[in-house]
Amino acid sequence: MYNAGSRVEGYSSPLHVLILAPLWWLVGDDGIYAASVVLNIGCLMALAVILSLASAGRKSSRYRNATLILLAFCPMMWMTAAMGMETPLVLLLQVLFWWQVQKSGDEEESGRSRRLPWVVMTALLVLSRADGFLMPAAAVVWLLCRRRRRPAMVVAGGLLGSMGLLTTWRLLYYGSPLPNTYYVKVSGPLLERLAAGIQSLLEIAADSGLAAFLLVWFLQVAVIWKSREKTDEKPGTPTLLSRFSPRVPPFAAFFGLLWAGYFVAVGGDVYRERMLAVLFPLGMISLVNFAVPRMRRRALILLILVVLAGQLRPLVQDRRFAYAKPKYDAWIALGRFLGEAHPGSLLAVDAAGKIPFFSKLTTVDMLGLTDAAIGRRKSDFFRVGHNKQDVGYVLSLRPDLIAVMSLDIDQNYRWGLDGKTYRQAGYRLRYLLNCNPVSQGANDILDVARTSDEEIRDLIIHGYRYGVLERSAESPANPRSSAASGWDGSLMSARN
Question: How buried is residue 323: exposed, middle or buried, by Cβ count under 10 Å (0-12/13-18/19+)?
Answer without folding.
Answer: exposed
